Amino acid sequence: MVVNELLAKELQDFNKKIIVLDDDPTGVQTVHGISVYTDWSAESIEAGFAEENSMFFILTNSRGFTAAETEQAHKEIANVIQHTAEKQNKEFIIISRGDSTLRGHYPLETEVLKETVEAQSDMQFDGEVIMPFFKEGGRFTINNIHYVQDEHALVPAGETEFAKDRTFGYKSSHLGEWAEEKSNGAFKAEDAVYLSLESIRDLDIDGLVSQLMAVKDFNKIIVNAVEYVDAKVVVIALIRALKAGKHFMFRSAAALTKIIGGVSDKALLTKEELMKDHSDHGGLIMIGSHVKKTTEQFEALQTCNFIEFIEFDVHLVLYPDKFEAEIQRIIETSEQLIRKGQTVAVYTKRERLDLGENKKEEELKLSVKISDAVTSIVKRLEVRPSFIIAKGGITSSDIGTNGLSVKRATVAGQIKPGIPVWLTGSESKFPGIAYVIFPGNVGSRTTLKEVVELLHQ
C-alpha cells in the first residue's frame, strides 16, 4: 500500500527521539516492545535516550495530580529531557499523551513543556498538534468534531459523561472550540489549522505540509481521523514539516504514538505468552474506576462464579482507624484466597464520596488517600498472584508504580484492543508478572469478563 511505503520511507531517516509523557498508564494501549519508565530521574531519561527504540514512555500519572503538582512535574521533566538531549547531541519530540475523551490538565501540561524547553534552548515551537483519535476505543474526529462511540452510536464528546468530569469537564465537541474553551480564549477556534478528512483521503500530502508550514505562534493543528490510514497520512505530512525545520508540541491519544514510533501490528496476547510461571495461585483484580462503562463491566464480571468478590468500603476514609482496619481485612482475606488458588476481585464501594458543592480539592485529596489505600493492598500482599488486573487509569498507575514498585516495564502488547499488558521489571515486587492495565472507559460490557476468563482458564 502506497501510504505504508511513504510512511516507512519518512520514518527511516527521522532521527529524533520520541518521548511520550503519559498522564496515566493506559497510553501504551497501541504499542508493544516499548519501555515505560515510572519516574523522570536523569537515570531513567538517559536510559530511554540510550535505547535502540526510537520511542519510550514516561508515566507521569498527572491526571491524578493537582494543577500545581502537574506544573512542577512537567518543568522537571522538560529540564531533564533538554539537558539529556544536549548531552547526547540528540534531537527529540515530546508527545503529551492525554485521554481520548479529552480529560486532563490541558493546556497546562503542553504550555509548561513548551515554556521550559524554550527557556532552556533556542527551540521555538510553531504549533501544537491535537489528535485524540483512538480507533480501538471508538474515538473519532470528523469535520473537527470529536466523537465517542457508545455501542452503535457516535456521541459528540461534549455530550458524554466524560465531559461532565468534576475536575476536567468541558462543553465543546468541536476541537478548535475545545482548545479555545480550555485556553480561556487565548487561542481562537478560527486561528486553528484544520487537517480535513478530504485532504487526507485525497492523499494531498503536499497540501497538508503547506498547511503545517504556515503554522506559527503555537496555534493549534486539529487532526481529523477515522481510520489508522488517516493518521498515517497525517504523520507523513508532520514528519516532512519537522524535517523542514518546524517545531511542534503534541497532545494526542494513543494512535499517534504507534504510528510515529513505527510500531508494527501485533496479534492480541495469549494466555501462554503471559502466564509463564504456572503457579497454583489465584489472580487478583483491583477495580477502582467509577465511570459508567466500568460499572457495567463490573456487573458482567459478577456473573463469573470462579471469582470471590470483596467490597472495599472506601467511605471509611473519613474515619482513619476504621479505614486502616478495613485495609487489613482485605489484605488478609485476599492472601488466604489467592494462596488457595482462588481469583479475587477487590472493588471500591460504587457510591461516590460526595462532600457537596465547591469541595473539589478536598474530594481530590480524599480520592488520593483512597487510591493510596488501594495501592497499599498490593504493596502489602505477601503472596504472588498468578496475574494482576487493575481497572481504571489512576488505579493502575498507582498500583504499578507504588504497589508493584516498577521502575521500568516492557509493554508486552494488548490482551484486547486498547488494553495493554506490562511485564514488570526485575526490580519490581513481583518480577515478570503479567500486569493488565484496563482503562476505565475502553471495551464493551463483557470485555473485562472475557479478559479474566482468558487468564483464568
What does this structure look like?
- It comes from Peribacillus butanolivorans.
- Belongs to the four-carbon acid sugar kinase family.
- Keywords: ATP-binding, Carbohydrate metabolism, Kinase, Nucleotide-binding, Transferase.
- Pfam families: NBD_C (PF17042), SBD_N (PF07005).
- With 457 residues, the protein is of the alpha/beta class.
- The protein folds into 2 domains: 259 residues, 3-Layer(aba) Sandwich (Rossmann fold); 186 residues, Molybdenum Cofactor Biosythetic Enzyme, Chain A (3-Layer(aba) Sandwich), CATH 3.40.980.
- Helix content is 38%, strand content 20%.
- β13, α12 and β14 form a beta-alpha-beta unit.
- α1 packs parallel to α8, α8 crosses α9 and α12 packs parallel to α13.
- It is globular and about 65 Å long.
- The model has no long low-confidence stretch (mean pLDDT 94).
